[in-house]
Amino acid sequence: MAYDDLRGFLAALEAEGQLLRITDEVLPEPDLAAAANAAGRIGEGAPALWFDNVKGFTDARIAMNVHGSWTNHALALGLPANTPVKDQVETFAARWDAFPVAPERRADAPWRENTQQGDDVDLFSVLPLFRLNDGDGGFYLDKAAVVSRDPEDPDDFGKQNVGTYRLQVIGNNRLALQPVPVHDVALHLRKAEERGEDLPIAVTLGNDPVLTLVAGMPMAYDASEYEMAGALRQAPAPIATAPLTGFDVPWGSEVVIEGVIESRTRQIEGPFGEFTGHYSGGRRMPVIRVDRISYRDAPVFESLYLGKPWTEVDYLVGPNTCVPLLKQLRAEYPEVRAVNAMYTHGLLVIISTAKRYGGFAKAVGMRAMTTPHGLGYVSQVIVVDEDIDPFDLPQVMWAMSAKVNPRDDVVILPNLSVVELAPAAQPAGLTSKMIIDATTPVGADARGNFSTPVKDLPEAEEWAARLRQLIAAQG
Amino acid sequence: MTHCPRCAHDTVGRLATSPVPGVWDVLQCHRCRYTWRTTEPARRTRRDAYPDAFKLTADDLAAAVEVPAVPPLRTTP
């Protein structure tokens, strides 16, 4: 089941009992963020939240926590609501193999219903903006898909980037943008600024649930997010042409904001409570001048609470971070069974693998650190045996407790690269990295006493699936 | 006079006002760009209640790093 817009997915969530409408009047602050914060604390099946009675607003419609549980993540992919996490990641990886799936261009985008442009642009009149965390510098757009093109190759569809970046509202027609230097929009901006040119940009809000997943996924520079969305949706992604920039934007967006990143300009931005569970900023960041806003009648404002994990962002970037690492590791090491890179966007990764020979697990751990995503993340790797589910933390802790001899199985590598947002880095952007080899030694590594492990009964896996079906049938 | 809760600057502008008249305004400091709604809790709107950890001085603002740094202009096409 592919959803062409956010509204279609919200209706499906409601039909599944996974959309909670809050009908009592709430304050824009702190209620909206506090409710979404709380959704991350009530268990793995938390619903999306819908608010349309917000004090001081006359027609606000706000959706939060849309991807904020494994249940909702499964439904976004069109899977049964109770699909285990490991199976969600495997399905994600299997669908990836259909990439690229060409998008479908449509002319009748619903966001053409309303327009503001030039001096009439006023973000506050279109969006019910609000603050998330106490220390945030202002109000943020934090669940947008930001579209930009390579200024030196603007006709290359693959190099057109669709990414999620934090955007602070710093004026009625101005936004501040955080492009982490390794990310694609920063490469586009660098090329434009070297030429002294503004960088055109489109910010799309309230997108279909798979497009949002893809926008947060670490993909290759020249790989098209729309073609990946088609693979994951198992149907072409609907796109449309943005009226001002001519960029390819999602057909089903609620709001499309167009303008330029002003060349060679920086302005104070932040702080913002980030995915690391810590604030980052304030720093001087690039600035967007908004020249045009297109929006649907009665637009839905989708926002995302993030702060101390776990929050919605952890579900959002969990599986889509696991899969690139899984693919890249398996390309050279087919022994790799599964990769759990869902802790703080892959700052910590758990890998299960079979072994070729003694020392192999440590090599797999080092390779994870040298993948494109690993260069900026992956500061700790735990490697476990092929019969350990890396998404089952009690199993991982058992492997750690029973199989690790710290003197020989913990490897620390000094002074490697990491994103500047990583709180433990010193200096920012540089960190030591660690591999914990929690696999059973194999020849020529003859350490320990591991000859008689207890194994699950052969029938247990079938019974687990049967129990899940019975529980789901109970409703 | 309204001062910025974060940097104590005395020039504050109004970015927005509530669609329901008289309920709230959204204000912004002209120096540090801190933005707040008048109905937010005191810990976000009043200088004396604002957490020290988030306060900024003029020196902090002047020393804020550029991310990403502005690159050199290309001298050849």
TrEMBL record, chain A:
GO annotations of cellular component type: cytosol
Domain 3-octaprenyl-4-hydroxybenzoate carboxy-lyase-like C-terminal intervals: 315-438
Top-rank taxon, per record: Bacteria
3-octaprenyl-4-hydroxybenzoate carboxy-lyase-like Rift-related domain location: 106-309
Gene Ontology molecular function terms on file: 4-hydroxy-3-polyprenylbenzoate decarboxylase activity
Signal peptide bounds: none
Listed InterPro entries: PAD_UbiD-like (IPR053417), UbiD (IPR002830), UbiD-like_C (IPR049381), UbiD-like_N (IPR049383), UbiD_Rift_dom (IPR048304)
Short name of one Pfam family: UbiD_C
GO BP terms in the entry: ubiquinone biosynthetic process
Domain 3-octaprenyl-4-hydroxybenzoate carboxy-lyase-like N-terminal: 10-90
Entry's family note: Belongs to the UbiD family.
PANTHER family in the cross-refs: 3-OCTAPRENYL-4-HYDROXYBENZOATE CARBOXY-LYASE-RELATED (PTHR30108), FERULIC ACID DECARBOXYLASE 1 (PTHR30108:SF17)
Protein name: Phenolic acid decarboxylase
From TrEMBL, chain B:
The protein's name in its UniProt record: 4-hydroxybenzoate decarboxylase
Pfam families (UniProt xref): EcdD_BsdD_detox (PF26358)
Domain of life: Bacteria
Record InterPro entries: VdcD-like
